[in-house]
C-alpha cells in the first residue's frame, strides 16, 4: 500500500480547518467581553492618564505640563496626609480582619452542628449588604442623638462614646469595615480548610496531637496561600478606601474632611472643584502607591507562601 501526497494533505487541511473554526468560535465568545472591557476600563484609564498630563486654568487655558501635576501631588499635604491615613488604617485593619476571619473559619471547621451552615450564612451576610446601607446603618447606631448605643449608655447613667467624633472616627470606621469584610474572608479561609486532606488530621491524632496542635501545626501552615491572597485583597481595598467615609461625612460633622483619603480627595478635585486634570493625577498617584505597597508586601513574603501552591 502506497501513501500519496494527496492522502497526506487532506487530513492536514481538515485539521487546519477545524482549528480555524475553533479559533473563530473562541473569538466570538470572548469578543463581547473584550469590547466591554476595552470600552469601560481600558479607554477610561488611558483618557484619565491623558487628562493628568494637562493643567487647566482660567487665564492660561489648558496647557501640557507632562509630569508637573505628579510633582505637585507628591508634595501636596492633603494627598500625603490621606496616604498616611490609609497606610495607618491598613496596618490596624488588615491584621484585625485576618484574625477575626481566621478564628471564625477555624471554629466553624471544628464545631460541626446542624447550625453550622446557618452560622456561615449569617456571618457572610454583612458582605451581601450594600456599602451605602451598611454605612448608614452604623451611622444611625453611632449617633449620640437618636442611636440605640446612646440610649443604652444613658440607661446606666453613662455617656456613650461618640464614634463619629474626630478622636474616635478611626475606630468607628475600623469596626464598620471589619464587620462588612470579615465574613467574605472567612468564606475563603473556610473553603481552603475544606481542601486539606483529612487523613493528615487522623495521622496527627494517632500521634497524640491535640486539637490546638493540629490547628497550629497543620491547618494554619497549609492556609498560608489563602491568607496571603486575602492580605493582598485587603491591602489593595484599604488603600482605595472611599465608600464608608464618604457616606458618613455628612453624619460626622467636621471629623471627615474632603481630603480624608486619597480617593475622597480625587473625588473632590474632579467633581466638586471641576479640576479634572488634578483629580486624574491624584488617582494615578494613588495607583502608584498601591503598586509599590503590594510589590513590597509580595517581595517580603515571597518565601512564605505562593498563590499557585
From TrEMBL:
This is Sugar ABC transporter permease. CDD domains: TM_PBP2. Gene3D superfamilies: MetI-like (1.10.3720.10). It is found in: Cell membrane. Keywords: Cell membrane, Membrane, Transmembrane, Transmembrane helix, Transport. InterPro entries: MetI-like, MetI-like_sf, UgpAE/MalFG_permease. Belongs to the binding-protein-dependent transport system permease family. The chain crosses the membrane at residues 24-50, 85-112, 124-141, 168-193, 214-236, 278-300. Its main location: membrane. It is a multi-pass membrane protein. It holds the Pfam family BPD_transp_1. Residues 87-299 form the ABC transmembrane type-1 domain.
Amino acid at each position: 500500500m502506497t501513501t500519496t501526497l494527496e492522502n497526506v494533505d487532506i487530513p492536514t487541511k481538515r485539521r487546519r480547518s477545524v482549528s480555524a473554526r475553533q479559533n473563530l468560535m473562541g473569538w466570538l465568545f470572548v469578543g463581547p467581553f473584550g469590547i466591554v472591557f476595552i470600552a469601560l476600563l481600558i479607554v477610561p484609564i488611558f483618557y484619565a492618564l491623558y487628562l493628568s498630563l494637562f493643567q487647566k486654568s482660567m487665564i492660561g487655558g489648558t496647557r501640557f505640563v507632562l509630569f508637573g501635576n505628579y510633582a505637585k501631588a507628591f508634595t501636596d499635604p492633603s494627598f500625603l496626609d490621606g496616604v498616611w491615613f490609609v497606610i495607618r488604617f491598613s496596618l490596624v485593619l488588615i491584621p484585625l480582619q485576618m484574625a477575626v476571619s481566621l478564628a471564625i473559619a477555624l471554629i466553624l471547621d471544628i464545631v460541626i452542628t446542624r447550625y453550622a451552615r446557618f452560622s456561615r450564612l449569617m456571618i457572610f451576610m454583612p458582605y451581601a449588604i450594600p456599602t451605602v446601607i451598611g454605612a448608614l446603618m452604623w451611622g444611625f447606631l453611632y449617633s449620640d442623638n437618636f442611636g440605640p448605643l446612646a440610649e443604652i449608655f444613658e440607661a446606666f447613667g453613662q455617656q456613650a462614646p461618640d464614634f463619629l467624633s474626630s478622636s474616635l472616627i478611626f475606630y468607628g470606621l475600623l469596626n464598620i469595615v471589619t464587620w462588612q469584610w470579615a465574613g467574605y474572608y472567612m468564606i475563603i479561609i473556610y473553603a481552603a480548610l475544606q481542601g486539606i486532606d483529612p487523613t493528615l488530621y487522623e495521622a496527627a491524632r494517632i500521634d497524640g496531637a491535640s486539637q490546638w496542635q493540629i490547628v497550629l501545626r497543620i491547618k494554619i501552615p497549609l492556609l498560608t496561600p489563602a491568607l496571603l491572597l486575602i492580605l493582598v485583597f485587603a491591602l489593595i481595598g484599604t488603600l482605595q478606601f472611599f465608600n464608608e467615609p464618604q457616606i458618613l461625612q455628612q453624619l460626622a460633622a467636621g471629623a471627615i474632611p474632603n481630603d480624608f483619603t486619597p480617593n475622597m480627595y480625587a473625588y473632590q478635585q474632579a467633581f466638586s472643584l471641576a479640576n479634572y486634570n488634578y483629580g486624574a493625577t491624584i488617582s494615578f498617584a494613588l495607583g502608584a502607591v498601591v503598586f509599590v505597597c503590594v510589590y513590597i508586601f509580595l517581595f517580603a513574603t515571597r518565601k512564605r507562601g505562593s498563590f499557585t501552591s
